[in-house]
């Protein structure tokens, strides 16, 4: 079946702008995760949804970052007033209820000029 | 939080050679996954292995949870094995899965023809 999909694959924006990154999990997966990967590093956890609610948002770096999952499927990561330090690859993953194995999407490469 | 250390950081092999990658972690885990990140950035699931031994073709993995380490074995390496290998763990919080994976820094594998 189809894997996790993310759009756009690349996003270039200017400092101070607002961006939205979208994640479409594997069909039937109730858990959804966002991670951020800087160059040369491993991915770092941002937020975890179980259904529609954020079960753990401890990884969000500050209040410019926000994520929603209103219908328990697609999720949107929203970044306000982008800064150059926000440039990274944003990865989304999903897993089945009761199973811990996570499956990742191809990521969105965000560049803030 | 939990610490994850991978070794070696870099590994260069000739095609056909065997290799062992190591992942040490600092606390009890209920999830351990090995990933291969290909040159396009996609994280490919290799193993879900919080304990025990698994094999898949030329790859195998062993996790000794009581001693807090995992090993990934690659036999008869091929140029297509090149890329970054990540170990990621979820700390065991006593039965409740919080979903947060903590990644190591990765091992960069280069296989020459």
Helix content of chain B: under 10%
Shape of chain B: elongated
Mean pLDDT of chain B: 94
How much is the average pLDDT of chain A?
A: 95
Separation of the first and last Cα atoms of chain B = 40 Å
Contiguous uncertain segments of 5+ residues of chain B: none
Task: Give the arrangement of secondary structure elements.
The complex is a heterodimer of chains A (113) and B (113).
Chain A: E1 5-7, E2 10-13, E3 19-24, E4 31-37, E5 44-50, E6 53-56, E7 65-68, E8 75-79, E9 88-95, E10 103-104, E11 108-112
Chain B: E1 4-7, E2 10-14, E3 19-25, E4 29-37, E5 43-48, E6 52-56, E7 59-64, E8 69-74, E9 83-91, E10 102-103, E11 107-112
Parallel strand pairs in B: 2-11
Antiparallel strand pairs in B: 1-3, 3-8, 4-5, 4-9, 6-7, 7-8, 9-10, 9-11
Question: What can you see in these coordinates?
Answer:
The complex is a heterodimer of chains A (113) and B (113). In chain A, the strands form 2 sheets. In chain A, strands 2, 4, 5, 6, 9, 10 and 11 form a 7-stranded mixed sheet that branches. The N and C termini of chain A lie far apart (37 Å). Chain A has strands at residues 5-7, 10-13, 19-24, 31-37, 44-50, 53-56, 65-68, 75-79, 88-95, 103-104, 108-112. Chain A is globular. In chain A, 34% of the residues are buried. Chain A is built from no helices and 11 strands. Chain A has 113 residues and is mainly beta. With 113 residues, chain B is mainly β. Chain B has no helices and 11 strands. Chain B has strands at 4-7, 10-14, 19-25, 29-37, 43-48, 52-56, 59-64, 69-74, 83-91, 102-103, 107-112. In chain B, the strands form 2 sheets. In chain B, strands 2, 4, 5, 9, 10 and 11 form a 6-stranded mixed sheet that branches. Chain B has a 5-stranded antiparallel sheet with strand order 1-3-8-7-6, with no helix packed on it. The radius of gyration of chain B is 14 Å and the shape is elongated. Chain B starts with a strand and ends with a strand. The mean pLDDT of chain B is 94. At the A-B interface, strand 4, strand 5, strand 9 and strand 10 of A face strand 4, strand 5, strand 9 and strand 10 of B.
